[in-house]
Structures are given as C-alpha cells and as structure tokens.
Amino acid sequence: MDNENQDVEVEKTNEEVKNDQDNAGKVEEYKTAKTVEKLQKRLVKTTGDKHDLEEELANTKAELEAYKSGKKTVKKLSEEDKAKQAQDAQVEELKSLWPELARTKALSETSEVLKEQGLNVSADVLNNLHSS
C-alpha cells in the first residue's frame, strides 16, 4: 500500500512538474508576446518618423531647387518675415524719436517754470539753454 501511495504521489508530482512547466511556458510566451508587441509599436513609430523626415527632406529639396532655378527669390518672403521686418522698422523709428520727445518735454517744462517766475522767454533762448 505504501507503494501505491508513493506511486500516486509520484504521479501527482509529475503532473505538478508538467503543470509548472506549462505555466512557466505560458508566462514566458506572454512575456515574449508583450516584448514583441512593444517592439512592433516602436517599429511602427520609427517607420512613421522616418517617413515624415523623408517627406520633409523632399519638400526642402524642392524648395532649394526652386531657389536655384530662380522660380523663387528672396523678395518673396513669407508674411511672417514681412511683418517682423515692419515691426523692427517701427521699433527703430521709435528709438530714434525718444531723444527728440525727451528734449521737447524738457523745453516745455523749462518754459513753464520760467513763465511761473514771470519771465517770457523765446523759443530760441530755450533752445540755447538746452543745447549746452
């Protein structure tokens, strides 16, 4: 009877080993499937990026050829470039007008102070006062 119990236990142990091996195999297959899935996603993304870069390169080459052939010139700037140039020109003009505005304000303040003191001074005299 002991032999029968030992045989049953051995069979159970063999079955457990097979189940463990099957489970280990399934776990390994699952891990492998997940890894393959991740790699496929990465491959699809990389392929898409490569395609986008190739398309951008083709567009850039076509634009370069247009410049070389004379179909496009530097005069045909984009609207953004034109707007930026106009804004830069306005900023430069304002910078050049600031000193003149400050001088005019100073002359006006000086004239007011002198009038408060009862002195009526001509513009020529004021200009001479502020030029020195």
What structural class results from the helix and strand content? mainly alpha
Number of helices: 3
Overall number of strands: 0
Instruction: Tell me the span between the first and last alpha carbons.
Output: 128 Å
Instruction: Describe the sheet with the most strands.
Output: none
Describe what this molecule looks like in 3D:
There is one protein chain. By secondary structure, the protein is mainly α. It contains three helices and no strands. The longest helix is centred in the first third of the chain and has 68 residues, at 2-69.
Topology:
Layout: H1 2-69, H2 79-116, H3 123-131
What's the gist of this structure?
This protein has 132 residues and is mostly helical. It has helices spanning 2-69, 79-116, 123-131. The chain is elongated and about 125 Å long.
Give me some keywords for this one:
132 residues; mainly alpha; 87% helix
